[in-house]
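One such shown below:
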Amino acid sequence: MKIGIDLGGTNIRVGAVSDGKIVRKAQVPTPHTSCPDEVVDAIVNLIRQVAADDAIEGIGIGVPSVVDWEKGIVYNVMNIPSWKEVHIKDILEGTFGVPVAVNNDANCFALGEKMYGAARLYDDVVGITLGTGVGAGLIFGGRLYSGRNTAAGEVCSLPYLESDYEHYCSSGFFVDCGTTGRDAATLASEGNADIMPVWQEFGSHVGNLVKAVLLAYDPQAIVFGGSIAKAFEHFEKPMMQSLETFMYPNMVQRLKIFVSELDDVAIYGASALVQ
């Protein structure tokens, strides 16, 4: 049995994965204190809870930040101010006596989709998460490619218009439009015509992000995840319209684009970090 941990700024989610399935899972709100040990203690307690009396083979953890994956050191975690530099690999290996692997959360998403989701049919995949922020993970030749600091694939931080791709392809875009992603999706589902120009513009921005991904990585497939991706039906058409202007139309025609249907994909991906 392996343990997968999804460390977020809002919640810590932990699952026990055995034979390709999550057999137990638990979560708690992420402690927001000045003491990094409180977050560590919460992780340790959740691991013990989901492990029960079963033997643990290894532990994988995904974090919303850059990571020294070789040493297992996490730096400057988003929305967890106390985690400036945490040697989480050493801490968990010392506590549980099993191998521990640490990586970026978007990489865990991509790996989870490759190992357990629809992306398992492809060798070259880019996983893109659309939510509070935008993240991307790379699968090349069937294997996760993280880069030296687990930041490979983060095209969302490239300059775009007056900011970067993340600003225009995340929840911040909807806030700038005077709404939220959730409310915009609800209104669109109810047939509110006034909200559709917002989705039209959003889809155009996502289409331009896909163009950047195509030029940088030329994948077989792109899989979207995250809270905003659940509203894919509302921005798929304008996204594809944006792609009609791409300089290499054959690349677009051969590209597969789909939305993750795998629940708890971050937990699955984190557990798959442990070989």
Notes: The chain has a mean pLDDT of 95. The first strand starts at residue 2 and ends at 7. The two ends are 12 Å apart (CA to CA).
